[in-house]
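Record pair follows.
FIRST:
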Amino acid sequence: MKTIEWVNNRIRIIDQRELPLRLKYITIGDLDSLCRSIKAMRIRGAPALGAAAGWGVYLGIKNSKARDGIAFNRQVMKVADYIGRSRPTARNLFWGLERMIEASQKNKNKSVATLKKILFKEARQIMKEDQKACRRIGSFGAALINKRDALLTICNAGILATIDYGTALGIIYSASCQGKKIKVFVCETRPMLQGARLTTWELKRHGVDVTLICDSMAASLMAQGKIKKVFTGADRIAANGDAANKIGTYALAVLARHHKVPFYIAAPASTFDLNIKNGRGIPIEQRDKREVTELFFKKPIAGKDIKVFNPAFDITPHHLISGMITDKGIIRPPYIKNIRKIIA
């Protein structure tokens, strides 16, 4: 099962708004539809958005009538800028766009037909690299898990957030393949319920012992000693190790520190943004108030005149993170030194 792929000259994605009730694929043949799908979180997850960026650029230029490489490059920049305005926080989205821009500019003296082929290959390579990176993350992270560990996660950092394996969930899949009988508690992840809708669906399909909890139960479980480790993904990691992830992640990190539970973040090198000094520089997406005031846009659960603050992400300070599991290895404190040593 792949979250995103190129099929019959179009982008094909799993419509994550339909899960868990049905597994539905949709095809996207134009740039506007892609950006709407990203904004509506029909496709989501930092690594998956990196792949969407690559295929999105190709989708936007494959029918280009540019006369030469210079004009073609201007079109690539325009398409990339448009895609980049869809969601601001996930570093991988912009990393994917930068990869496509660089591939085009580096070959600007070649024919337009050749440039199109180069960008197609680059988009495909982004996908292949994610598949390999997630499996390396899984391998490194599985070494941290003991037999019969009970783990906690939030949001969805699995197949649906990547191409076909996952970051935080990839670690769980790898540990399971090694025969470690583990139990996973999943926070529902309000307001869009990615934990309830997506992560439990994934884990159950893979035969993992999974239990859904409401977000406010995490402290109680930790106090009872029922959680041995916390694993989450990340959408952008600053040079000092501060990490943006789904809203509620910071709260889990604080609780984990209080209860002396190791708290790990799993992310590929492409999620790191060494141009941002610390978490204060990470842009945080503000989303539609209806995500909070309505139950999945269908049933009102608050008054129409209620003011809403709905950031999609929060920042976990680096000092609360026990380690960062990447495709290049596990990064430990001091993060400023070791991130540059391993990632740069």
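SECOND:
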Amino acid sequence: MAGMPRRFSFQELEEVTGKFSNCLGNGGFGSVFKGLLADGTEVAVKKLEGSNQRSKDFFAEVGILARTHHWNLVKLLGFCAQGPRKRLLVYEYMKNGSLERWIFEDDRIPGNISWKVRFNIAIGTARGLSYLHDDCVERIIHLDLKPENVLLDDGFQPKIADFGLSKLMNRKESQLQLTITRGTPGYVAPECIQEGTVTEKTDVFGFGVLLLEIITGCKNRNLSGDYLKDYLLVSNRNGSAGAHLSEEENEKERLKNVAALCVRDDPNLRPSMSKVIQMMEGVTELLQVPLESELNFFFAYRPKDQLSRTAALNVTYRSSDKLLNSSPSFAAFSQSSLNAR
């Protein structure tokens, strides 16, 4: 069927990748190799390794990507399924790799791409996520949004990738229940860790974390109070004097406050991704910036090695007098990151 992913044999993909000779990267899931199809199309071939859970993730990713078509989602061109040791996914090749390599020079130093490019990446990522939530027959919850899973084409257009942890949610359902917490520490919403519940607002939380990383060029685990102190005080000093800021400074302030709205403790108070886009673009006014007490989870919880519901329950509802007296919009973000993994 036109537009559907093609099924490759393992032998075909060995030939396409030159026997997997050009490795683009690797991780817990396996490795990604560059390849060239017979028609000259460059591709990225993800070779999965691991447990039966990885097998489930593989077929989930094939099923989800086969039904999505959006400029800001990576395109699945094909796959191979010849037993548990020969599971591969064939994607369009993204020349500029992942967002991570561009917004971070290292853990603490921002990358050198311009603010205009960063802003467009943030907007494009938000549009891709909004499509998953609002425009598919079944709502798709990504559950692992982070810089490594946002790929960039040769024009720096972002494309959300890696749907192995994603879940489909019928539009009649209000939430899903998970038995195992999914996602990457630092980006996972409190309701997912504490109760195992998932909605589209779970992705909104992860987007809020990603957005602040795009703005600052610093990984969320290193966004300490000291790092953000001067940055936050600028907002407090200027108050409503936005007219005196440059266009770039106004955009950064606006996106920073949007990020704060996205990482609220209560998922019902987080904006939808369609609302997020409107606020980022300045089409609609920002919602009221949250209070410190609405960001207790983000303030208090930063897992180092694994996601622990017990630990999260123990720290989430600290009384507000234990919070530092800082910017209402970002005290939670800056201080919680001191305990980053």
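COMMENT: The radius of gyration is 20 Å.
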